[in-house]
Amino acid sequence: MLSAIILTAVLPALCIYSCFSDMFSMRISNQVCLAILGLFGVFVLVSGMPLMDAGWHLLAGLIVLVVSFGLFAAGWIGGGDAKLVAVIAVWTGFGQLWEYLAISSALGGALTIALLLVRSRPLPAFALRQSWMFRLHDKKAGVPYGMALGATALFVLPHSSVWRFAL
Q1: Angle at the Cα of 124 (from 119 to 127), degrees rounded to 5?
Q2: Angle at CA 31, nearest 5°, toward 129 and 51?
Q3: Kindly report the CA angle at 119 between 115 and 123, in degrees rounded to 5?
Q4: Comparing C-alpha atoms, which of 101, 102, 95, 62 is closest to residue 161?
């Protein structure tokens, strides 16, 4: 029962929070990433997931963390994005990892194109009073890629192998 609540309520809430946090502040806190990772540990304990399976999930996250921090070091993604993609990779494991990365890349690309289009036009008057809209409109600002990462998790995780342990 608790494992189903984690998968259907708590984990999606954290993913949604990461989307809005990145959109409004261009930050994904370490606490959110640690909560998503810690939640996986709780899930393993309450769901009966075999430790070998949990280990493979953790390995997927570790590999993604190494690659994503390389991308961060190159200046291509933010540090919060690097941590978020890694902790979500822990949840997807290798089984849904490529799907997760492909969809989040496509969604992130669409978000980038949309922001470029919006940034090419002046902000409407109502948006000037919203600091987060003003920040998103800034051509020097990055892309809140956490929006794509968190949103994609909502679509991919229901198809991941963790569900078989929640039932």
Answers
A1: 85
A2: 145
A3: 120
A4: 95
pTM of the predicted model as reported, rounded to 2 decimal places = 0.91
Position 45, amino acid: L
Integer-rounded Cα radius of gyration of the chain: 17
Structure-token match 């494992």, residue found: 3
Which position has the token pair 């029962």?
1
CB 90 within 8 A of CB 37: yes
CA dihedral of 21, 62, 4, 45, whole degrees rounded to 10? -130
**What would the two tokens of residue 132 be?**
């987060």
Buried b (16+ CB within 10 A) or exposed e, 10-24: bbbebbebbbebbbe
pLDDT in tens, 65-104: 999 999 999 999 999 999 999 999 999 999 999 999 999 9
Query: How far apart (Å, rounded) are the C-alpha atoms in residues 131 and 165?
Result: 43
Handedness of CA 4, 95, 44, 155 (dihedral sign): negative
